[in-house]
Amino acid sequence: PKGIVVTGVDGLVSGHSDEDLAFVCTATGPYQVEIRASSKVGRYRLRVEGPRPAEDRDGIRTEAVKAVWDANQEMGENEGAFRRKIRSFEHALPLWRQLGESRRAAETLYLTAYIRSNLPDAAEQTAADYQASAELWGSQPDREAHTWQWRALIYAGKILKQIGRPDEARQRYEEALKVARTMEDLRSQAISLNNLGLLDSDQGDPQRGIESLTESLAKAREIQERKIEANDLINLAAAYEQLQDTQRALQYEREALEL
After folding, report:
1. Are the C-beta atoms of 209 and 199 separated by less than 8 Å?
2. Residue 108 near residue 99 (C-beta atoms within 8 A)
3. Who's near 86: CB < 8 A, 6+ residues apart?
4. E strands present in 67-152
5. So what's the pLDDT on residue 186?
6. Where residue 149 falls among pLDDT bands split at 50, 70, 90?
7. Cβ 108 vs Cβ 88: under 8 Å
8. DSSP the chain
9. Which DSSP category does 25 fall into?
10. pLDDT averaged over the chain?
11. Highest mean pLDDT range out of 22-31, 139-148, 151-160?
């Protein structure tokens, strides 16, 4: 009634699962709900619950939605803005858990990790956030959730590799590969195998790396993913250089250049 925006919601991706718009009205008067399909044309379902008296859960949900909305409205690209976004997400997380909303908690942890990755000296917590997000996504039954589980595991593995914890990175990559195979997603399988192969080569086991990279290359070619194919070829060339097989290294380098 005062003519100000009281809350909002912004989905993680187009076509994502249901999104909550929640607000407990404390002042009487007309309220306007505005809906915009800004990124994808299609059909949307709007379900309105009410009017009814507010319950305790409604207040908790309103607070969680508002915290996520506040984070999404923070547009700065500096450390201060990143920390404010993280504080808002961290405020929302226990509220989603209190409501038993594991999917919302998984989203919030993923977004927290994504933003935290921009901060200095935050790699360990970022990897932990991605891992926690992956575990929650894994508890969901649908393919979309497993896609986000795979992404969280890949990011966790990359960060663990960067901070010198290769064994844990391998575990995350292997878990991601298992998820990708369960989904029968060749692209995700190829990326997982590429990361495993590069990790093995970097850890001084190029022969093992070549096995994963060769399998990744075959899958990338099957689905015509040229970017993954090029990465596989470059990494295979480096692995054969480690084995002092110059002829094969040059062969893969030439193939990469042709792409």
Report:
1. yes
2. no
3. 71, 112, 115, 116, 119
4. none
5. 97
6. very high
7. no
8. --SS-------SSTT-S---------S-S---------S--S--------S----HHHHHHHHHHHHHHHHHT----SHHHHHHHHHHHHHHHHHHHHTT-HHHHHHHHHHHHHHHTTSTT-HHHHHHHHHHHHHHHHTS-SHHHHHHHHHHHHHHHHHHHHTT-HHHHHHHHHHHHHHHHHHT-HHHHHHHHHHHHHHHHHTT-HHHHHHHHHHHHHHHHHTT-HHHHHHHHHHHHHHHHHTT-HHHHHHHHHHHHH-
9. -
10. 90
11. 151-160
Residue 71 confidence (pLDDT) above 70: yes
Task: Kindly tell me the sign of the dihedral angle through the C-alpha atoms of 113, 170, 154, 232.
Answer: positive
- Between CA 13 and CA 10 the distance in angstroms is 9
- Confirm if 243 and 207 have CB atoms less than 8 A apart: yes
> Which amino acid does the sequence have at 97?
R
Q: Look up tokens 């290769």; give the residue.
A: 166
Per-residue pLDDT at 35 exceeds 80: no
Q: Which distant-in-sequence residues (6+ apart) come within 8 Å of 34 by Cβ?
A: none
pTM (predicted TM-score): 0.87
Phi-psi region of 224 (alpha: psi -120 to 50; beta: other; left: phi over 0): left
Question: Sorting pLDDT into bands at 50, 70 and 90, what band is 40?
Answer: low
DSSP letter for 118, please: T
Q: Report d(CA 224, CA 117) in Å as an integer.
A: 31
Is residue 158 within 8 Å of residue 195, measured between CB atoms?
Answer: yes
Amino acid identity, position 68: V
C-alpha span between 124 and 117 (Å, rounded): 10
* CA 87 – CA 90 distance, rounded (Å): 5
